[in-house]
Each structure stands twice: as C-alpha cells, then as structure tokens.
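Structure request: Oxygen tolerance, Psychroflexus planctonicus.
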Amino acid sequence: MKWITYIFFCLAAFNLQAQVSFTTEVSREKLGINERLKVDFIIDKDADNFKAPDFNGFRRLAGPNQSMEQRYEYGKASFKKTYTYYLQPEKRGKLEIGQAEVEYKGKVYKSPPKTVEVTAAVDNPNSPTSVARSEVADAIHLVAEVSKSKPYLNEGVYIVYKLYVDRNINIRNYRPIDEPSFKDFWSQNIDIDRLEFKEGEYGGMPYRYVELRKTILYPQKTGKLEVEPLTIGVSVEVPTNRRDIFGRRQYELVEKTFSAKTRVFDVKPLPQEGKPLDFTGAVGQFDIQLNQSKNQLDANESLSATLKISGNGNLKLFNPPKLKAPNSIEMYEPERLDRVRTNANGMNGYISEKYTLVPQFEGNYTFGGVDFSYFDPRDEEYKTLTANNISIKVNPDPTAPTQTAANNTSQTDSAKTSKQQILTPESQFKYIELSTKLKPKGTRLFFNSNLFWTYLLLPYLCIPLLFFIKKKTNNSNNSTNGKAQQKANKLAKKFLSEAKRNLSDQDKFYEALERALHNFLKAKLKITTSEMSKEKIIETLQQRNVGEEQIQQFINLLQGCEQARYAPSSTAAKKEDYQKAAQTISEMDKAL
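Returned structure:
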C-alpha cells in the first residue's frame, strides 16, 4: 500500500505538470467605439502553429506581436508565451473574441472566447498603447458645431461635423465607423456635393478644415436631448525623420479613429402665454394665401380653391387649417401638394391644399377668411395670419328645364329665402330606360344542339394549343434569363473597368475595386456617400430581401479591399479578388 500510494501521487503530480493553460486576456471589458482594445493570448508551453480568431466586428491595427518569458523562482521553472493584438471596434454592441488555436505535442488547444461591450464614442478616450504616431492625435480634430444649443420645440437647428487637419498632415481617405443617432429629433442630412478644404482656426492655431456632414434637426421633445457623436476612421500620411536617397522626407501611413464630442441641446417648450386656440404646432416664419380659379360660373359647375402656406419652418410637421364653405356649396376632400426643400437654413418652400367646389344654386357667395397661427422663434411670440376671402358669382344652370333664382348666402352669410329649382318628373327620371326590347324565347332545346357539342369539345381541342404556349413560354424564360445574365455581366464590367486597368498597381487597384463596389450600391439602392456605412448597407440589403450569405460575402469583400491596400499581394490574388467582385456584383444585381 505504501508503494501504491507513492506511485499514485507521482502520477497525479505528473498529470498536473503536463496540463496546458491557454487563456485570453483583454485590456478592458467595456470600451467606446473610438477606443482601442489590447488582446493577449497566453499559453504556458512552448507551443507552435498559432491560429488567431476572425475578430468579427473589429479591425486589426497590429499583431500578432509574439513574446516569451521564462523564470526560475525557488527552484521552480515557469514559461509563458504571449500573442498580442491591437484591435479597433467597428460597431457597437456585445462583440465576441473567438477561440484561438495552438498546437503542442501534436494536440490542438483552444482558448476560451471573450466578450466585450462596445458603447458609443467617449469624449476622452483612454486607449491602450497606439500603433500610430502620437502626434497625429494633436494634428487632427473632429468637431461637431451646432447653430443653436437652446432651441424651441420644433425650431430648426443644424449640426455640422468639421474635420480640422494640420497643414503638415495629408489625408488619404476616411470612412464612417459609427453613425450618430438623432433620437427625439426629426432629422435630414444635407448633401455635400464636394468635400473641399478651407482655411480656418482651431484653438487659436491655423488649420485646414473640411465639412464632412451637415444635418438639419427639429426637436420633438423638450428638455436636454443628447446627440451621440460621429466616429470616423482616417488614413493619414505623417512625415517621419527618415529620408530617401535623394534627401526627400519620407511619410508613414497611419490609421486613426476620431470622434466628435456628444452634443446636448436644451430644448425650450413653447410659451403658453398668448397661445391661440387654433395653434397646431407651426414654428417658423410663414405667409398664407387663398386663391380661386374662377370668379363667375354657372350652377353645378366646379371651381378650385387653393390654400397655400409658404415660408421657412417645420412645414412637414403640421397640418394647415381647413377651408369652410356654405352648405349650398358642395366641397370635396382637398388634394395636398408639398414643395419643400431642406438646406442649411432648414425647411423652406410651401405646402398647399386644393379644394374642388361645386355651387348648387344661383347667387353671390363670399367665404374663406381662414386664420392660421404660428410661433415665430426670432420674435419669440405667436402670430396669426388671415387669408383673403373668396367671392364668386353663380349664374342659373342653363341645362335645367325649370329653375328659379336663389340668392342664398351674402357676405354676412345670412340666408335670403327664395324659390329653389323644381325638377319635372320627366327630367327627374330621364336616365331610366322605360321601353324594353324583349324577344320571345324559342322552343328549340340547347341539349344536342351544335352549340352544345362545340362547348363540350372545345376544352379538349385547346390541349395541344396549351402545350405549344407552354413551350414558347419556357423558351422565352430561358432567353430572358440569358439576357439578364448578360446584363449583369455588363454591369460588373462597367463598374470594375477602372480596377482592371490598375492590376499592376496594388494601391490603385484596391481603391478602384472598393470604389466600384460603393458606386454599384449607390446606383442600385439610391443611397448617398454619407450613408455608405456597413450597418446602413446591411440594413438596406436586408430590407430588399437579399440573402444573408450574399450580404456577408459583399461585406467581406469590402473589408478585404480595405486591408489589402496595406499588405503585399500577388497578381494572382488581385485577379482572384477581381473575379470575386465581378461574381458578387452579378449575383447582387440579380437578387435586387
């Protein structure tokens, strides 16, 4: 028993010593989308054939950086090998860092997965050690400027995102990483036709700046409303201390993430003092008109009356007042027309409602006088406008056989009783056919007649005709599918022609390939460049019922273009990427 116990403890100690520890450590479990994450995969054995996870939802900034550490303490040896990555999150939410793999003594070991929570951008990011040059953070600033921080409810304001760049820094490109959400606002982006650098100042120092995006906001709630920051990734060229053989300064390409700070609007409620009873929420500066198509017409003829409200303000966010007419005038539901455009000054243009009116009786009519109330934020007071009246003269109906004049409603809308139209019985029912053209029914039976046998055999005679039509339809479908395939191939060649011409230049090839994919989406989905984010692309394609596999293939291709520009690639690999892009565009075109 003594020897058995001794052998048992020796085997147990040997097994404990032979166990392999393979763990995953992250620098923080909760971070903003503009912060960086350091991930360490640590194994306590000298293992080989390390395989990293996919890092879905992250962009790899650097890694793997491999390090080894061996210690002897109190006669006991310890060993640790570490694979380090620096990652940049590309979207918000709970993201999982998958399992890494490593091989030790012919056996494969996997690290446990790790979950981190990515939130909106923070104002003062505390990132891990960055792989970029430190001076870039002081040379580039993303700023969100607002036209008014304390607007009234439903008052139009704008927020513009400006990128300030030091004059010694050259920007290659930028891409949105996290879009701001405008919760509790009605919002609309203003298209910027061309991104152009202008001269300006930031912090009292001269800078160049470019307006990346401008958005018009109309607050729909009162109180403090937050606008989450815009986060972008910027590829910049920064000067280094190295020079080439000709003495020219060399530049280094740096990938950096920037975020604008969270902006807070203190929205004031509209004052209750002096608020009109007919106020419906219009805020801005407006004018009102009431126009008519005719001044004189016969009874039972129609005319149109158009109520038009024009100006600058929240034109799409309220309903105009209703026109009221006398009971002797038949009025139909109005036809609404909006001619509103949105620019840096907010909504401007007009909205109108067109009424169709049919007077029933002879007379002179005056009505209208519509009141419209709105709040003017410039003068901080309510204003009421009154539209002009409509005056029409209605003549007797010349088509009526007997009618007497009836002057019904005057400017005071007081009824002056008179005789009304009297319809004779002949004219009242003249639309009814009183004479018939009936024929007596014949005595011949339908059964066993020629028509009976024709109807009976006709379905059987149509069978060959149906086979012929089916064959023609199949041939037509095959021809249509062939044309559709040819059309898709032409579409792919159209968008990818520039990339094919630059196969010899890797940087230009992948830039052209990425631009071709973006232009294809802009053409098919009718979206602007400012909306070209991965989340917006996925959401729009899902709404168009495109399959998840095709969507993921398209997104992977975009990500591959971004990464391939900064890594060496062979001509064969570029040709393979070109074929993948052509196939993806063709399949996506058919799916859409």
